[in-house]
Structure formats: structure tokens, C-alpha cells
Design a protein that fits this description.
Length: 355
């Protein structure tokens, strides 16, 4: 369900920028943007375990834990704001009725939007589950789009699947891009030209120092030959049968309840084993050991927290692609247009938020 919300376009000159990350989790947005040459200047995340990871990877940047206690004055100026706001109240994975944006968690979008209205950075990128599109018969999604448009953003949205970005996981997420006073650019970021330049080897690159997390060559039989792994488990010429991509990794991946247990295991011929957190890191595009706090030992309790954090994270290669698209379409005045001109957009959305 891709789309574009119309607004008058505006164009300007190119440079890299800075990023502020909200609902930062374990830093998937930050890591993806930095891989494309951007610099993270701010993070907001309430989860204590995730904050440990953020602190060890970005020890010198400004950080805030609770978005409800955050003022725009606390946020360093950033060209791009990223937010994977909570999905629990819009997700179809829950058996109970969905609260949508009225819920305590997904409703934090309103707190983010109020800050966005005060700062109005040049680009905003939101991420959530596809259930956002039909939550309350689409009304919640409409509120998100209308809010961004009334704040002066041209908006485009698209569902992206991680399996198309070099990781063997089927993970569909809706990405919403807003560009201040520039709907044409929002669409350019999300919808690349049908013909363009690419580099296959870049998409295949793996930083794993153990078993290669991703197979790189398929044979007609449907078997994948592991021809470039670092530590072989069963021999350099052994074949592993992979009938399909990994299920979407969720925050409940570490549990053994309901139907989720089947998603935490992989089968090699007649043997079955559980996916370990290091493999889930690979399925999400994170470096090996990213979710292990320094000075801790790997154990069952730590595994549960790692599974949960990774299940809530964005897939890093998807974010790197988005960052490259932002970079490819950026110009000087649309990176931070608030520094050039004040918004003339109506403030009815912000008034509704504060009502």
C-alpha cells in the first residue's frame, strides 16, 4: 500500500547530515545511517537494557530515556529524525483487540509529533508494523499522515521487506518518510528509479567472524552451498537444505509459548536446533555480539533480553538503503529547512495533540 501525500515541492544542494533517533532500541536506525556516512547526535530510549547497548556503542552523545519528559530544547539540532514508535497497540500479532493510537504505547506517536512540530527538521522517517495501515479501519494511519502533512511535511509511505535487502528474513514493515515542504523528495527517497546503479557485492557483504550468517550462492536443487564460511560446522563442502526464509523475528522469539516456539528453531536434515541470539543479530543485520553488554557472560536470562531487543529492532540493511536514498536526494536547504524559513503550515494537528 504505497502512497504519496501531495504538497508543493521544493528543491535545494546536497550534503550528509546528522540524525536524532527516537524509540532508539538497540540503535538500528543509528547504525544504518552511520553506515551511509551520517552522524548520530541524539537518542531517546526508555528500556534499561537497550540503554546499556546504546551507551556502550555511543558513549558521547546526548541521550534521554522518557519521551514524555523530553523538551525540544533537550534535543540537539539534527537534519533527520528517525522513530520506530511502539507497535504493540497496532500489531495484528496480538490476540486481543487493538487499542491503536489510543493505546499507552503506540500513542507515544503524539508525544513525538509534538516535538517534531517544535523542531521541524528537514526529514523524518517513521517505522512500524503493517498493522498500522488498517488499525481502526485505517483511521490511525490517516492520523499519522495528516499530522505530518499539517506540520508542513510532504509524505510518502511504502512497505519494505528485509528479505530484499540482503538478509534471509521475511520482515515486512511500513516506512513513512516526510520531507519538509517537499513531497517530491519524500517519494524519491522511497521509490527508486526502475533503472539505476547498484553493486551486488555490497549487498552481499558480511561482517561475521564466525559461521557466515547468510548463504551466497543458490543451486537449482534449492540447496545452498556454504562456500565462504569462516568456521565450518559440518565440513567445507557440506550442503544445508533451507526450504524457506526465516520467519519474521519478533520480540517474543525467545519464548516457548503459543505458536512462537516454531519460529525459534531451524532444521538441518533430521536434527533441530534453536536459533541463538548471535544468529538473530545476523538476521537483523547487526554485527556479531552487538547485543552483549561489555563485562557480562552469555546466559539464558541475557538471551531472553537479546531476543526481545532484536525482535523490536529495525533491520539495519533496510535503514542503510534508506539513508543512501536520503543522501542521494538531499540538498543543502532541505536538510534543515527550519534554519532557512519558518513553516507556514497550519498548526491544527499540534492543537489537536495538546487538546
Amino acid at each position: 500500500m504505497p502512497g504519496v501525500a501531495p504538497l508543493s515541492p521544493k528543491s535545494t544542494s546536497a550534503e550528509h547530515g546528522t540524525v536524532a533517533s527516537f524509540f532508539a532500541g538497540i540503535g538500528g536506525f543509528d547504525l544504518g545511517f552511520e553506515a551511509a556516512g551520517f552522524r548520530t547526535v541524539f537518542q531517546s530510549e526508555i528500556d534499561p537494557y537497550c540503554n546499556v547497548i546504546l551507551e556502550q556503542e555511543w558513549p558521547h552523545i546526548a541521550r534521554n530515556k522518557d519521551i514524555k519528559e523530553l523538551s525540544v530544547d533537550d534535543i540537539p539540532r539534527a537534519d533527520i529524525w528517525c522513530a520506530g514508535f511502539p507497535c504493540q497497540d497496532v500489531s495484528l500479532a496480538r490476540a486481543r483487540p487493538r487499542d491503536g493510537l489510543r493505546g499507552a504505547r503506540s500513542g507515544l506517536f503524539y508525544d513525538f509529533a509534538a516535538l517534531l512540530g517544535d523542531a521541524r527538521p528537514g526529514t523524518v522517517i517513521l517505522e512500524n508494523v503493517p498493522g498500522l495501515l488498517n488499525s481502526h479501519e485505517g483511521r490511525d494511519f490517516g492520523i499519522v499522515i495528516q499530522t505530518l502533512v499539517e506540520l508542513g511535511y510532504g509524505v510518502a509511505w511504502r512497505i519494505l521487506n528485509s528479505k530484499h535487502f540482503g538478509v534471509p528474513q521475511s520482515r515486512r514493515r511500513v516506512y513513512i518518510v516526510g520531507c519538509y515542504n517537499d513531497p517530491g523528495r519524500a517519494a524519491q527517497i522511497l521509490f527508486e528509479p526502475e533503472r539505476g546503479e547498484g553493486h551486488l557485492e555490497k549487498g552481499r557483504k558480511s561482517e561475521s567472524s564466525t559461521l557466515s550468517p547468510f548463504m551466497e550462492r543458490a543451486e537449482p536443487s534449492g540447496r545452498l552451498r556454504n562456500h565462504r564460511s569462516h568456521k565450518q560446522l559440518i565440513g567445507s563442502s557440506a550442503e544445508i537444505f533451507v526450504p524457506k526464509l526465516s520467519f519474521c523475528i519478533s520480540a517474543t522469539t525467545g519464548r516457548h509459548t503459543g505458536t512462537d516456539w516454531s519460529r525459534t528453531y531451524v532444521a538441518y536434515h533430521d536434527r533441530v536446533r534453536r536459533l541463538v541470539p548471535a544468529e538473530v543479530e545476523g538476521l537483523q543485520g547487526f554485527p556479531d555480539g552487538w547485543t552483549v553488554p561489555k563485562g557480562t557472560s552469555v546466559g539464558e536470562d541475557l538471551d531472553s533480553r537479546r531476543y526481545h531487543a532484536l525482535g523490536n529492532a529495525v533491520s539495519v540493511p533496510v535503514i542503510t538503503w534508506l539513508a543512501e536514498r536520503v543522501k542521494a536526494t538531499a540538498t543543502l536547504s532541505n536538510l534543515y529547512p527550519g534554519a532557512i524559513a519558518q513553516s507556514s503550515a497550519p498548526d491544527s494537528a499540534l492543537k489537536a495533540l495538546s487538546a
